[in-house]
Amino acid sequence: MEFWGLLIRTVIIYFVVFLIMRFMGKREIGKLSVFDLVISVMIAEIAVIVLEDMERSMWEGILPMAFLLLIQLGIAFMTMKSRRIRLLFDGKPSVIIDNGKLNSDVMRKQRYNLDDLMLQLRENKINTVSDVEFAILETSGKLSVIQKEKSGASNEMDSESGGSEAFGTEQKLKPYGKSNIIPPKYRFEILPIPLIMDGKVQDENLEKLEKTRFWLKNVLQEEGVKDFKDVFFCTIDHKGRLFVDLQNKKPRF
């Protein structure tokens, strides 16, 4: 008898949770902000408590879930009317890359590391940071990437030279020749290949490229960089093009 009671409870709670999630709207299903995640977790926890304790009345679970639904709908209505409230609950997007330049201060503030960035750039089929006009970290955690527009003339120049010079004083993209840099048997599971991350040389990747710190230091000196610690991010792509982004020189508190 207890088994059938648990089965009936499970079916009822399932439909209650299903209806609550439907009433919350497609916005909550389509993306999970911090507030959406909290509401969803709380509804799930309440449902589990009612199923685990057969002595509890189902109304002790249904009423709190319905109340959470009212809270969610009320806040959703207020966020539609007021952008200030919307920013309070959902936050605002953060610009991670601006015209091929990494915004290290924003990355530190959002606790967004270089490995996360490289992963999401690869998911967007981006080979190098300098190809990005803007990369925006959305409130849902998704990275929206807008690539730079390439004119026909610039594309022809890139194909002839093997690379292009990036804009700005703190980043440069320079062709070094694929045959001289990349070993023929190197497998490109990671693109671009990180050489320096947060001022630390990635010796493992240098070994895979059959290069040394001495070679990397000479290459950086050609770009006007004297110390590895001055570099925030340095990569090389499959065409042998080097990307260098310097550390932010502002004092850290």
From TrEMBL:
<feature type="transmembrane region" description="Helical">
    <location>
        <begin position="6"/>
        <end position="25"/>
    </location>
</feature>
<comment type="similarity">
    <text>Belongs to the UPF0702 family.</text>
</comment>
<dbReference type="Pfam" id="PF04239">
    <property type="entry name" value="DUF421"/>
</dbReference>
<keyword id="KW-1133">Transmembrane helix</keyword>
<feature type="transmembrane region" description="Helical">
    <location>
        <begin position="62"/>
        <end position="80"/>
    </location>
</feature>
<keyword id="KW-1003">Cell membrane</keyword>
<dbReference type="GO" id="GO:0005886">
    <property type="term" value="C:plasma membrane"/>
</dbReference>
<feature type="transmembrane region" description="Helical">
    <location>
        <begin position="32"/>
        <end position="50"/>
    </location>
</feature>
<dbReference type="InterPro" id="IPR007353">
    <property type="entry name" value="DUF421"/>
</dbReference>
<feature type="region of interest" description="Disordered">
    <location>
        <begin position="149"/>
        <end position="170"/>
    </location>
</feature>
<dbReference type="InterPro" id="IPR023090">
    <property type="entry name" value="UPF0702_alpha/beta_dom_sf"/>
</dbReference>
<protein>
    <submittedName>
        <fullName>Uncharacterized membrane protein YcaP (DUF421 family)</fullName>
    </submittedName>
</protein>
<feature type="domain" description="YetF C-terminal">
    <location>
        <begin position="80"/>
        <end position="236"/>
    </location>
</feature>
<keyword id="KW-0812">Transmembrane</keyword>
<keyword id="KW-0472">Membrane</keyword>
